[in-house]
Amino acid sequence: MEPQSQNLKTAPFLTLGRFHISEDYGFLLPNPLMPLLNCQFLTGYREWRLAHLVLSFITMGYVWQDGETQPKEILPRNLALPFVEVSKNLGLPPILLHSDLVLANWATRNPGGPLEIRNLDTIFSFPGGESLRGFILVTVLVEKAAVPGIKALVQAVNAILQPSPDSLLQALQRLRVSIQDITGALGQMHDYVNPDVFYSVIRIFLSGWKDNPALPVGLVYEGVSKEPLSYSGGSAAQSTILHAFDEFLGVRHSKESADFLHRMRDYMPPSHRAFIEEICGAPSLRTHVLSSGNGQLLTAYNQCVESLAALRTYHLALVTKYLITAPSKAKARRTSHLPRPPQALEERGTGGSAVMSFLKSVRDKTLEALLHPSG
Question: pLDDT by residue (tens digit) across 156-172?
C-alpha cells in the first residue's frame, strides 16, 4: 500500500485548465472568433505567394458559395484586410489569379518522380473533383512544356545582339518544338476534364467581379473601400507564355484584343510582367530576319508563327467544347445531378472577354505575322 500513497502525494491537483476546459464555458472554446490574420510573420516571396493562394481560394469559395444567383456582395474585413495587404505586397490584385490557381498550386506526390499528371496533385481545391484537379494540373503541364521555349527566347535575344545566326536558328527551332509540345500538353484536357463538370460546377469559382452581370458593380472589400472594387476572374490570358511569344515574334493584335491582353498583364506577378517588357524592348526579331537575307532563319521564324497559330486554333476548339457546346447540352438536359449552369458569363471567358471572337482574332492576327521573302 505504501507505493500507492507515495503516488497520491506526488500527483498534481486536478484542474480544468490543464485540459483546456473553461471554468465558465466547459468544453466550449471561449470566444472562438480569431483575431485578424497578421501578415507580419510571413517571410520571403514564397510565403507571400502561398498566402495569396490561400486567401484567394477562401475568397472565391465565400463569394460564389451559393452560385451566381446569390453571390456575396461584401467580403468581410477579416478576409478583405489581410488579402489586400498580401496583394499589395506582391503587386497583385486581391482575387484568384492564374498565378494562384496554377503556378503556385501544385505538388509532386513523389518528389523524385516525373512531372506528369499521375505524379502531381493540387494543394488547394474547389468543388469539381477529378475534373478540377485535371484542369489545374494539365495547365501546370502546359506551363512546364513552355520552359524550353522561354529559354529559347533568352537564347534568341542574345543571339541577335551578338550576332550569331547559328545560335538564333537553333533557338527558333527550340521555340517551335516547345510551342508544339504546349499544344500536346493542352490536349490532355480531353482525358482529364469533363466539359459538363467544368461548365456547371468549376467555372463559377474562377469568375471575377468585372464585366460580370452576376456582380455588376463589383465586390465591397470591407474595411478597405466603401465603394465596390472590380477585378477580372482567372484567365489563361494571365499566363505570361503567349504574351512573351507574341512580343518576341512581333505578333500584333487588334486594338480590342490588345487592350484586353495588356489589362491581363496587371494580373501577373510584376517580375513576369517585367520579363515581357524586356522581350518587348529587345531588338526586333522580324526586322533582323528580314534584313539578314537568311532563308533558313526566315523559314524557322515562319514555322514558329505557324505553330503558334496552330496552338491557338487548338485552344479555340477546346474552348468551343468546354464553353459553347457544354452549356447547350446542359440546357437540353431536363434533369441532372449537376447544378444549373451559370448564365451570367455565357459565351464569355472567366476573365470577362467575349471569348470566341477574341480567340479567333488573336489566331488570325498571329497568321498575319508570317514573313514573305523579298524579291
Answer: 999 999 999 999 999 99
- In which region does residue 124 sit, left (phi positive, over 0), alpha (psi from -120 to 50) or beta (all else)? beta
Maximum separation of any 2 CA atoms in the chain, in Å: 112
Contacts of 156 (CB under 8 A, 6+ apart): 167, 168, 171, 172, 175, 248, 285
In this prediction, residue 375 carries a pLDDT of 52
Q: Residue holding cell 510582367?
A: 273
Three-state SS for 74-132 is: EECHHHHHHHHHHHHHHCCCCCCCHHHHCCCCEEECCCCCCCCHHHEEECCCCCCHHHH
Q: What are the tens digits of pLDDT across the range 328-352?
A: 666 565 445 555 555 545 555 544 4
Distance CA(26)–CA(30), nearest Å, equals 9
List Cα–Cα distances, 97 to 43, 104, 206, 232, 269, in angstroms.
Answer: 21, 10, 8, 9, 10
At 282, list the grid cell: 529587345
Segment 149-153 shows an average pLDDT of: 96
pTM of the model: 0.87
**Among candidate residues 63, 245, 52, 33, the one with its CA nearest the CA of residue 153:** 245
CA nearest neighbour of 135 among 115, 127, 113: 127
Enumerate residues 6+ apart whose C-beta is below 8 A from 15: none
User: Per-residue DSSP letters for 254-310?
Assistant: -HHHHHHHHHHGGGS-HHHHHHHHHHHHSPPHHHHHHHHT-HHHHHHHHHHHHHHHH
Report how far residue 351's alpha carbon sits from residue 260's, in angstroms, rounded to the nearest whole number. Answer: 9
- The Cα–Cα gap between 98 and 268 comes to 8
**What CA–CA distance (Å, rounded) separates 165 from 289?**
10
In one-letter notation, the amino acid at residue 266 is D
User: With contact defined as beta carbons under 8 Å apart, do 200 and 330 qualify?
Assistant: yes
Range 209-226 average pLDDT: 93
- DSSP per position, 200-214: IIIGGGG--SSS-TT
